[in-house]
UniProtKB/TrEMBL annotation:
Broad class of where this protein is predominantly found: membrane
Annotated GO biological process: protein homooligomerization; regulation of G protein-coupled receptor signaling pathway
Name of the molecule in the record: BTB domain-containing protein
Cross-referenced SUPFAM superfamilies: POZ domain (SSF54695)
Cited CDD domains: BTB_POZ_KCTD8, H1_KCTD8
GO cellular component, one term: presynaptic membrane
Annotated source species: Coregonus suidteri
Length: 330
């Protein structure tokens, strides 16, 4: 008769007979799994964690479906709590936007020393991620150099600026009898620009997982959209008052000895959009005509008003042996 094997979580591994808890403890904190020593969790007396893992029997603590000890708190911020318990130091990343929430976590776990290291509780106006803060470092200084001295940014200024849409796509040359073959394939649409502006335009369709800790007034080139339809992105930008002012594309064909009619070619294309919602008269035209002579930002094929000349697509992708293939027209 075969015996059914059971894999126990670390928290169930037997330790010394007299110890109610194992030396190594497995935690589920808000969906995030942590593995640490029990001695780390109880290293600071008179705290919530110390009380949990010294006064309560193991079987009385809540557990998840896999038997891990469950703590219903912010799983992302618990890493900083655990780091503090290990060496009594607090090391936060640059531009850390969650300081006030981390203070609440420290209060819940009754870690007075961590609260002291975090400093006095900031007000909601300073601690919230809105469009009013974060104007003091180098990136913002370089941005503000275009504005007249002494003039502060207004809400209209914050809705203005550039957003770059980029995508790495592919297309296939097909024979006449393959009319149903897919022409354009877009793997991911990247978004570059000021974070607050990108969030205002794309909202919940913006994936911020690759650059999550940046303040809203900083810039990023690591966001991407949760959908892969270029025209949907263009509609969003148009509804927000943006106009396309420049575009470019690079195409790459396969090696000649590998070339086949059905071989996929790859390309990278960028579209630059601008919203001239500025309170300073003429400032938008100053930006758009800085490199005058070829229309806005020196982009050929435009009529000088942010529109494609004659409704043509703004770019063509180069294929092998000088052949060209149009990208999806706007």
């Amino acid at each position: 008769m075969s015996m059914k094997e059971t894999i126990l979580p670390i928290s169930e591994v037997s330790g010394p007979a007299q110890a109610p808890y194992p030396e190594v403890v497995e935690l589920n904190v808000g969906g995030q799994v942590y593995v640490t020593k029990r001695s780390t969790l109880v290293s600071v007396p008179d705290t919530t964690l110390h009380a949990m893992f010294t006064r309560c029997p193991p079987r009385e603590l809540p557990r998840d479906s896999r038997g891990r000890f469950f703590i219903d708190r912010d799983g992302f911020l618990f890493r900083y709590v655990l780091d503090f318990l290990r060496d009594r130091q607090l090391v936060l990343p640059d531009h850390f936007p969650e300081r006030e929430r981390l203070q609440r976590e420290a209060e819940h776990f009754q870690l007075g020393e961590l609260l002291r290291l975090l400093g006095p509780r900031v007000g909601s106006k300073q601690g919230s991620m809105n469009d009013e803060g974060c104007h003091s470092d180098i990136e913002e200084s370089s941005q503000s150099s275009e504005y007249p001295t002494g003039r502060t940014l207004t809400s209209s200024d914050k809705r203005s600026g550039f957003i770059t849409i980029g995508y790495r796509g592919s297309y296939t040359t097909v024979r006449d009898n393959q009319a149903d073959a897919k022409f354009r394939r877009v793997a991911r649409i990247m978004v570059c620009g000021r974070i607050a502006l990108a969030k205002e335009v794309f909202g919940e369709t913006l994936n911020e997982s690759r650059d999550p800790d940046r303040p809203p007034e900083k810039y990023t080139s690591r966001f991407y959209l949760k959908f892969t339809y270029l025209e949907q992105a263009f509609d969003r930008l148009s509804e927000a008052g943006f106009t396309m002012v420049a575009c470019n594309s690079t195409g790459t064909a396969t090696f000649v000895n590998q070339y086949r009619d059905d071989k996929i070619w790859s390309s990278y294309t960028e579209y630059i959009f601008f919203n001239p919602c500025l309170t300073s008269p003429g400032h938008a035209s100053l930006l758009l005509t800085k490199n005058s002579g070829l229309g806005p930002i020196g982009c050929e094929g435009f009529d000088g008003k942010g529109r494609l000349d004659g409704g043509r697509a703004g770019t063509q992708e180069q294929g092998a042996a000088g052949s060209t293939g149009p990208v999806g027209q706007l």
